Amino acid sequence: MFQARDRYRARYARNGQTHTPGRTFTTFKLADDWLIDEQRLIDRGEWTPPADRRAALQALEAAQTAASERVDAYARRWLASRTTRTGTPLAPRTVAEYGRYLDNILAPLAALPLDGITREKVEEWWQEHDRVPTHRHHAYSFLKSVLSDAVKRGRILSNPCQVENAASISPNTPKAVRAGLVTELDASDVVAMSDAMPARHRFLVLLLAWTGIRPGEAFALRRQDVDQRTTVDGVPRVRLNVFRAVTKGPEGGPALIAGAPKTPGSVRAVLLPPHLAPDLAAHLDAHAAPGVDGLLFPSSNPARDFCTVGQVAGTAPKRRKYPTGTRFEKPTGWNAARLAVARPQLRLYDLRHWARRQWTRAGLDTASAEMLLGHELPRVLGTYAHLDLDHVWPFMVRCSELTGWTPPVAPKHTPAIISPRLLNAMTAEQLAGTLATMSDEQLAEAVPHLDAATLARVLSATVTRPGETRNG
Length: 472
Known about the structure:
The chain is α+β, with helices and mostly antiparallel strands. The chain is built from 22 helices and 13 strands. Helix 3 packs across helix 7, helix 10 packs across helix 15 and helix 15 runs antiparallel to helix 16. The C terminus is likely disordered.
């Protein structure tokens, strides 16, 4: 032990190493007491190097400090560094949704320190929110993921999210009932629902029901996303490019998010069954916004940049009391459409399920149907499967045929019955008489092959048919 300025330092040698307390002392006695305590540990066989003891104490203090961090703060830091399975950052909508969980339904648990959230408190929270099973399930899954990360990092010893059967959701509408709402619909019901909608949204119902795109994807469609340049056997083959979707932005209002709103497979092209081509043309003329960037379904609310499900839903039927008496107000929008087919529980999103059912009825294979819906395929299958629109097109035609639509009959080509060489060799009178016996289709085929001199001779003659006069 020695003195340095007004402080005292202590050290001793053991096992060939010099050990120190890692600090100095203000008095000789304090330094000497530390050495005496070290000797006692050696005598009792409890000695470990002082440096190891200091490191263990620092780790314990750090763990205690970390455990006292609030769940809310830890969760938000976790969100900031979280990525998807493909290594990309979480979508802004996802981050915003998780933030709303922390601010609302999870607020009582989010205010606790990490080491203060227990299994009993989580179970109590679970029981208190039994009236919103789906919302509760999503919030619980998020919290469980956050706390699993805390366990991996050694911030807490175990995950308190251990509610039994928490992975199960009790839907408000049983699955069998929900399936019946979709499977019992037919094409005439879809038309009836479309007719019950306001004019600006009639084509939307047809589009969702036959292409299976999500409502948010439909709201983001622009004129430039519609490709009508191709025909097959006289039938218009309309392709819709789904590149964007309207989703709730970080501030809670609709915001256009470029790219796939759900999965990378959501960026795709879909085909419109041909019987809907006239409806699309009429909608573009009457209701779509002008210009190549014009939205197919503009917002009906000046305060919103994009159409929303709420605008499409309209108003529910209700009774209002007025001084002159009670008045029944009829429903509007989707509320009126689903009542028109006596299915008040039908959701707009159910049309997506109906589309897949129609494709299956037409014979489309499962992999193509899933890719048309924008779903992720299993890893191996998804690696080698690609959406082939040429393969899909015949099934879209078949879907239209199931509604009673028939493709137009292509006009038959009738060639000229006399070779152009023989026609050019005829005299003016012979040629005029021959042309007079031809049909309009034969004339259209033959005349372009006549040379200028022959045409000049014919122009001076009059071609006469029984009961008709034609000027050559």
